[in-house]
Amino acid sequence: MRRRLFAAVTIAVATLAGVVPAVAQVAQPTVVSADPVDWTPHVLDGTVHAIAVVGDTVVVGGTFSAVASVDGLRYRRDYLLAFSAVDGRLHRFAPRLDGPVYALAAGPDGTVYVGGAFRTVNGVAQRGLARLSVESGARVTGFTASINWGDVRTLATHGQWLYAGGTFSAVNRVPRIALARLNAGSGAVDSGFDAAITTTGDHRVKVEDFALAPDGRRLVIAGAFTHVAGAPRTQLALLDTGGPRAVVANWYTDAYRGSCDAAYDTYLRGVDFAPDGSYFAVVTTGNGAGPTRMCDTAARFDVAGAGAHRPVWVNHTGGNTLLAVAVTGSAVYVGGHQQWLDNPHGNKTAGPGAVPRPGIGAIDPRSGKALSWNPTRSRGVGVRAFLATGSGLWVGSDTDRLGNEYHGRIGMFPLP
Asked: How far, in Å, are 244, 279, 359, 414 from residue 274 at the CA level?
């Protein structure tokens, strides 16, 4: 099981060429094993919110403060840690942040982009965004991006650009509500790219998650908003990002116009593009059950075509939240604190046809039905991070049972 990650090698080659690799799930020819590898370290508290692979190193971010190495030794690691993608050996990487990390993206030259709710990095004021050396943990001083308030919840890179989404309203004092495109080297805001995201509600505009297509030309955003660049787009929008400006695609859906629990400013929680860019999947919370509602569901949307789009399929949990999704071509992996999939008629119960999938599951991308893969995990709040690579599927959460084994908040299911 101690095999080198293909994705890590791909990133290393791109880095040598001076190019920032695109963030996208890696295509996998088959569903991963239900038996996680035995050599990953254990995060001992908090939650893992983000995972990135840089060279042969796995970088993990979240709300934790302690980690145990494979040999059982305990170390202090506040919000960030790094370990070998080959054997799980813990690295000395221990930058000092004063707040949580919610997003990571691999950068060039052995670096990682970090997003979250922190205000300082290694004692220097730099709010919500930073670029760090994976070897030393030092700040890359030439990258000076900083948000005004709020947080950064999602990051993606392609070529010269770094995309950031969250709850901020300005980057480097340049107004950018919840979404910005930055120069990946300097962190300067792209002056021509402004999605002008707004809402008619009383809540704050928020990009909860986004996904960048593998070619970098489409960005799907999910969150608390009603309009993008003046066009009506409720909670979900598709942007054309191949040019100098943020252009709202002639693609929309009314699937998420319906309400769920009024306590949620948005009930969308995660989105991910397929490796070929032809479709994406969305997962939701909402505390609402029923076959006609989009609360607590996973859904596939095709990109092709103009105008209104309906989901190709919808898979219902029966009233339990889904928080994270990864699309690999062979499967749509979903995680949260769900108990079942294929459960449109359940209401915190198993309805007709429901299949048990506690905390983690996989859906057939074509039929929308649950696959037989069922490793199980202790449910907790739920899976917060997936990362698919050429060797397997990384999973980050808030619990310590994965595949019927002890794995503290981080684990990896290898390809068979």
From this structure: 24, 6, 22, 19
